[in-house]
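Worked example 2:
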Amino acid sequence: MNRLPALLRLRRFALPLASALVHALAGAAAAQAQPIPFIDAHVHLNDPQMQLALMDRFGAEQAVVFWGGRSSNESVAEAARQHPGRFIAFASISPERRAYRPAWAGGDGAALLAELDALLATGHYRGIGEINAVHFESAGFAETDYALSGPVMEGIMALARRHRVPVMLHVESTRMAELSTLLAQFPDVPVIWAHGGYTPLILARRMLAQHPNLYYELSARTWPRHPRSPEFTLLRDGREVWPEWLALIESQPERFLIGTDASHRDAASEQMKFASVQNFLAQLSPAAQAQVGRANLLRLLGPASALR
């Protein structure tokens, strides 16, 4: 009796089962392992207590925080004063706020920039952002599409230069030429590119090569699925990072930052965001983990933001 076909059928079913078992065991081990320490580069601080609890659970030592839909520059600064070893406040004059849109559209930009200057002068803010100059429409967020060569954006960069702080800028990949011009105009101002503009790999390589002052921030790109587009995640199967992306990050670990894009709308969703960061960091080499997870952001923010 020829048993080869039966053995082949057994192998065909056994190999996927074994692979699934290996992944399940690896996932269980990762869940039990100590979280990899990191500093969250991207948080919309709507609920400080939820944020602190998530940080404690998922290994985030500190977090860069700025306004969300239910917060303000003032509330963010107050949270940072109450938790100086955990929260690092950024100030924003982003156009998603209805009061600020007329200035971005060509109104009194000088008054808006004076407001930002006054905020930075308090010393309570370690950076500027998130500035959503070009942001596609999403749930609860109206589209913004403002010139990067206008007086408000150029004024923001000039203030960042004067106060020696980085700018977190949200610009979609549809406006690469304007972003390149802005980066070249202010080569001494560090720009943290929120979500890396959700660019494909080829544009990420090009922008990093052309602009030494650009830092590619990976928040929301580590999520298993992104609600706006399946192409926005860096994961090929909901878990594993594409090898080509890993190769780029490992080749230039000093140019990448990690964040959650937390906003505290739903506890389960926020847990997913933090878990996705741990999954991503676990796939990096220890040296890249240290730079992407902590060192790059601390270097940009300066010694005043070091963990106390």
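Residues 1-32 have pLDDT under 50 and may be disordered. The beta strands are 38-44, 60-66, 87-91, 127-135, 144-145, 167-171, 191-193, 214-217, 256-257.
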